[in-house]
Design goal:
This protein is about 45% helix and about 15% strand. The chain is α+β, with helices and mostly antiparallel strands and about 725 residues long. The protein folds into three domains: about 230 residues, Endonuclease, Chain A (2-Layer Sandwich), CATH 3.30.870.10; about 230 residues, Endonuclease Chain A (Endonuclease, Chain A, 2-Layer Sandwich), CATH 3.30.870.10; about 230 residues, no CATH class. The chain has a 17-stranded mixed sheet that branches. Strands 7-15 form a two-stranded parallel sheet. The radius of gyration is 30 Å and the shape is globular.
Length: about 725
């Protein structure tokens, strides 16, 4: 640890840890990072962590001459074979890969073997886990690699397809192809490579994420004799403090961490001369407000923001573009002193080819630099898992390293040497102005032959105002209230759920066979008479009480509630006896009446008795019921947390307002009542007449129930 204290970093506020790096450097673009990773992996001895949003085992890490040289040494160049190669040659090496458990949005982009384990069969000491331990809609977005706790990479690049490119970003580079042979456009990104104590801290973070995702405790295995630093990479910094900055969403027992947001705000407030930003997205209002305030100051800093010309990615260009339009328009309105430059990189003779900016970095003055996975969007501030590395310069040598990142990026974007960029800053008329240098390098008269540059980012009219609500769902500031409420009711995962499809495919087949067999029995035997509603109603009319069927069913709901009989069975029986519409009305009335009676019982028994009966888990539910009212009741009615009657008793003992309780019960029971009554009606139709349409409906219903139960099982294990 260096002796000079950092002025900006505050552990527990805007960073998780401050650790020393023996060496640190920035790797620009996929060619540099993939080559450095390839080299480092070959040096690994004990343990490798790979955390990412995506991965592709067939990704070519080395291309062109580098690939020829590697193959001449009999070294694999594709990721999967390379991982197998190093594990087989080093019996003590253990590799753990944690990738986001993709949503349907990625189903057509992911490598097929991540679904079915086809193609690449990893070695037993290569552990691949799909992380789904995060709030609904959130993603595991950290991109970290740690080798033996001694060397680490952190930034915006995943080890997957559509990422490799050179700093030239040639429009038609034939090497820029996916494993499937598809070409793609220029792609710009950045990673930081660090060595020493900070790598060990990143390994600690990886072990924590692995435990949260799998419930498996993994001890970090550090080997400080490993020299995995590529000899061709000259260190930018030596013996320097590095801040590790995270975003972690509130989830189950995990507390919310917003260090990424805090450091962005602190860095913007501390800027004296300039703020240089590259990012894929800019949709976070809180960061926009902070920049607006600095732009409106008379002596505030210059602000340069480099974004892609068009937004692409899994969030959808239309949604994020609509939000970006409003954010950038606000900044332009605040730029009363002409200190703002919004730019996008381009390549090609007629500037037709935009460069996809995927980098997530910031340089403030010559003092602060940060590189990581966090976008300037709400998700990265409080919903997705993120990790950035930040360096605060403490002396002129370190300031030169910070300045180097900004100037090398400008040189890359403008297609000039870094010496030419430095010369522009040293001209007397520049007065050290970042915006002046960018304007000079953008002058078409001086640079008419250039085939690269930074073009003005034109703010289009908001074409998609109807997507505002959708944008709020796709780019929320934190987990949705309903999702956080769900997490409060359940404990953290206790075991891994890997291999569910392989373990349960037989049950899917047996379920389908059971439906077919039941249909055949109803079709060809006398059992079909049981499904006749009129016959059942006539049978029930002979009961000794001189009452109608409806009051009898309501009494059944009350008695069932008091005896803890499953309410779903009562709803299903109602759906069998009555036609769909009367069944719906009766089921709603019966559940409300039963809930009201058992609520009263809970109120009479009192809190202490219910707490002794329910235990600590339902005591936690009691607190949530009292805190959230209608929402909590509505949510808990749809979750496999506690029986219907127990929830009613706890609610009564919690003294939740009766109105909130009844409204929440009505809203919460509605989906289940609708599903059960409609399903039961269709089931009867299927049993009596198993035609292709009914068979198709039942198959779809079965798949839906299996998928829904699977999701609930994984989430509430």
């Amino acid at each position: 640890m260096t002796n000079v204290p950092n002025k900006l970093f505050i552990q527990g506020k805007n960073c998780w840890a401050i650790a020393s790096a023996k060496r640190a450097a920035v790797l620009r673009n996929g060619e540099a990072y993939f080559a450095a990773f390839h080299h480092a992996l070959l040096q690994a001895r004990k343990q490798v962590f790979i955390l990412g949003w995506d991965i592709h085992s067939k990704e070519e890490l080395l291309r062109g001459e580098a690939a020829v040289e590697a193959k001449a040494r009999n070294l694999p160049t594709r990721l999967g074979p390379l991982l197998d190669h190093v594990v087989r040659s080093k019996p003590d090496l253990d590799i753990r890969i944690l990738i986001w458990n993709f949503s349907m949005l990625l189903s057509l982009e992911r490598e097929p073997n991540l679904f079915f384990n086809l193609g690449w069969a990893p070695h037993p000491r290569i552990h691949l886990h799909m992380d789904d331990e995060h709030p609904v809609g959130a993603s595991h977005h950290q991109k970290i690699v740690v080798v033996d706790g001694e060397l680490a990479f952190c930034g915006g690049l995943d080890l997957t397809h559509y990422r490799w490119d050179t700093e030239d970003h040639e429009p038609d580079d034939p090497r820029r192809r996916t494993p499937a042979g598809r070409s793609y456009g220029p792609y710009h990104d950045v990673m930081m490579m660090v060595e020493g104590e900070v790598a060990a801290k990143l390994g600690e973070l990886c072990a924590y994420r692995w435990h949260k995702a799998t419930a498996e405790v993994v001890e970090q295995r550090i080997d400080d004799t490993t020299d995995a630093w590529p000899e061709w990479v000259q260190p930018w910094f030596r013996h320097i403090n590095v801040g590790i900055v995270r975003t972690l969403p509130e989830y189950k027992s995990q507390q919310e961490v917003r260090e990424v947001e805090a450091l962005y705000l602190d860095a913007i407030r501390s800027a004296r001369r300039s703020i240089f930003i590259e990012n894929q997205y800019f949709t976070a209002p809180i960061l926009c407000t902070a920049l607006e305030q600095r732009l409106q100051e008379t002596d505030g800093p210059e602000v340069v923001i480099i974004l892609p010309k068009k937004i692409s990615g899994w969030l959808g260009n239309k949604v994020m573009e609509a939000k970006r339009v409003r954010i950038l328009d606000r900044l332009m309105q605040a730029d009363v002193h002409n200190r703002l430059r919004l730019r996008h990189p381009w390549v090609g003779e007629q500037t037709k080819h935009g460069v996809m900016v995927h980098a997530k970095l910031m340089v403030v003055d010559d003092r602060l630099m940060r590189v990581g996975s966090a976008n300037l969007c709400n998700r990265s501030m409080g919903l997705d898992t993120e990790c950035d590395l930040a360096i605060e310069a403490q002396n002129p040598e370190q300031e030169a390293g910070v300045r180097r990142l900004r100037n090398e990026l400008l040189a890359e974007h403008f297609g000039v040497t870094v010496q030419e960029v430095d010369a522009q800053f040293q001209r007397p008329e520049s007065k050290g102005s970042l915006t002046w240098v960018i304007d000079q390098l953008s002058d078409p008269e001086q640079w008419s032959q250039r085939l690269k540059g930074l073009g003005p980012l034109e703010i289009q009219e908001e074409e998609f105002p109807e997507l505002v609500s959708e944008a709020e769902i796709l780019d929320p500031e934190k987990p949705l209230e309903v999702d956080r409420l769900m997490d409060a009711f359940v404990p953290a995962r206790e075991s891994s759920q890997d291999g569910w499809l392989r373990a349960n495919w037989l049950w899917l087949i047996l379920g389908a066979c059971a439906l077919v067999g039941l249909a055949a029995a109803w079709r060809f035997t006398g059992l079909a008479e049981i499904a006749d509603r009129q016959r059942l109603a006539e049978f029930l009319q002979i009961v000794p009480w001189d009452v109608g069927l409806y009051p009898l069913l309501l009494i059944g709901f009350v008695v069932g509630g008091l005896s803890m009989f499953p309410v779903t069975v009562l709803i299903g029986a109602t759906a069998i006896l009555l036609d769909p519409l009367p069944a719906l009305v009766t089921a709603f009335a019966g559940t409300q009446l039963s809930a009201l009676v058992t609520y009263g019982v809970g109120w009479r028994l009192g809190r202490e008795r219910i707490q002794r009966m329910a235990g600590s888990r339902l005591n936690r539910i009691s607190r949530q019921l009292a805190r959230h009212g209608v929402v909590s009741i509505a949510v808990i009615r749809n979750l496999p947390i506690a029986p219907f009657t127990i929830v009613n008793l706890v609610a009564g003992a919690s003294h939740i307002r009766l109105r909130d309780y009844l409204v929440g019960t009505l809203l919460g029971m509605a989906p289940g009542i609708l599903a059960v009554t409609i399903f039961t009606d269709q089931l009867l139709g299927f049993l009596q007449e198993p035609n292709p349409l009914n068979i198709l409906f039942m198959a779809g219903a079965l798949i839906f129930l299996v998928v829904a139960s699977r999701w609930l099982k994984r989430r509430f294990s």
